[in-house]
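Ticket reopened. Same input as before:
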Amino acid sequence: MKFDYCPVCGDKLIPKQIGDEGDVPFCEKCGRPFFPFSYPCVICLCIAEDGDVLLIKQSYGISRYVCVAGYIKAGENAEDCARREIAEETGLEMLSATFLYSRYYEKHDNLMLAFACRVRKAETKLSGEVSEAAWFTPEAAEKALFQGAYGIDMLHKWQEIKGNAL
Ligand SMILES: [Zn+2]
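Engineering reply: fixed in the latest deploy. New output:
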């Protein structure tokens, strides 16, 4: 996201040299820069105590298994966003979150923050955005995810580090 106009007062922004950042869009009226940014969001590999992985199908778009994901709200910590999205979409309680990696997703200008989230296994309560949720062993989850899905990378990363995490 790049600003041409000030999101506060609407004035045209001018490039201004700021430290090592080079030219940054600046509002002279408000006296502040508006740095370009990518929308941050979380993607959560939900794992129960027994190692099973929860995947969901969204109500909109292509019907395939994906991980819980969502946009971070202004002022929200990434871990709190993960806890909120998991609760909203599946009704499950997140017990802890381990950061896996971040990845820029150009199509939607998102910075994806990937977490392995320990959740308490329980009956799911799905939001209107979710049509289905199911538990899989890690091996079955890898098969259920589509080729190239973030969830597959996340499973691999989780398998690498899980001895030392959570
Ligand atoms: Zn302004």
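The longest strand covers residues 94-105. The chain has a mean pLDDT of 94. Please confirm and we'll close it.
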